[in-house]
Amino acid sequence: MNDTMRAVVLDGPGTVERLRLVERPVPEPPAGWVRIKVEAFGLNRSELHTRLGLADGVTFPRIPGIEATGTVDLDPDGVLTPGQQVAALMGGMGRTFDGGYAEYTVVPRSQVVPFRSDLPWEVVGAVPETLQTAYGSLTVGLDLRPGQSLLIRGGTSALGLVATTLAKETGATVLATTRSADRLKALADHGVDHPLVDDGAVAAQVRALFPEGVDAALELVGTPTLPDTLAATRVHGTVCFTGMLSNQWTVPDFYPIDYLPRGVRLSAYGGGAADLPAEVLQRHLDRVASGESSVGPTHVYALDEIRTAHDDLEHGRHVGKLVVRT
């Protein structure tokens, strides 16, 4: 193995020009940590927030990346076997310690989820973080049940597409929004029952279909659309606040009685590696491999195209997940 690796380093908040591809020493894992040879990693809004200076607790310079997929290169404790396929995610990756935007990354073993798959790495790389967040949102955040109706606000995002997949597997009826009418077909092709154009007043469209409101709603856009999402939800229904595609996540001067429709429940979800059971990851990968499921559209970049990838992420140029293949 070489002594050096290629890595993307962010020296501080700013434009995509702040992302630099450099040579770094290959990191050594201390006890309790594992070195992973990174094959692919997905891009996430969290990393955009880090680059824009919107994320708390980040220290610079930093190799970004809250997830990575690849193979175990070294486990000094001998718990994991070299060559074993793994995903790593969350827990400070790319924020308080260096993350997945590199050819090798070192992470706590507690943040590693093993799997086995013959899928291409660029497909596997699209899965871990979005699957963890979608799975947790639908189970912990919404307690979604078969036969219920679910509104996904921000449906063409990678997270929205995975949430659609899992909700349909649960047996739910899915409504999902997009701001662009030319993306309605992409939602329908992915299995959405009722694709909707987000004109800022989605609640009226939802209640034309479900007069009492939907049973559950997944808010992925942020606080600007949250009141309308709440208004689309039935009494005793639940809205889970998970995503911030708008980069806005706080409600100023929050007065619950005025803000929340009577009887509508508001929850939130954020999780980590421990919230993605290995069997859930394995089952999803197996279903994708068999054609029973889909990760949705993926857009693949090389490591030296990281600035282009981040610019595409920031401006929402693609439907689905952006993945870098190292």
UniProtKB/TrEMBL annotation:
CDD domains hit by this protein: quinone_oxidoreductase_like_1
Key word NADP present: yes
PANTHER family referenced in this protein's UniProt entry, alphabetically: QUINONE OXIDOREDUCTASE PIG3, QUINONE OXIDOREDUCTASE PIG3-RELATED
Enoyl reductase (ER) domain: residues covered: 14-324
Keywords: NADP, Oxidoreductase
Lineage of origin: Bacteria, Bacillati, Actinomycetota, Actinomycetes, Kitasatosporales
Protein name: Zinc-binding alcohol dehydrogenase family protein
Organism of provenance: Kitasatospora saccharophila
InterPro entries membership: ADH-like_N, ER, GroES-like_sf, NAD(P)-bd_dom_sf
Transmembrane segments: none
Tree of life domain: Bacteria
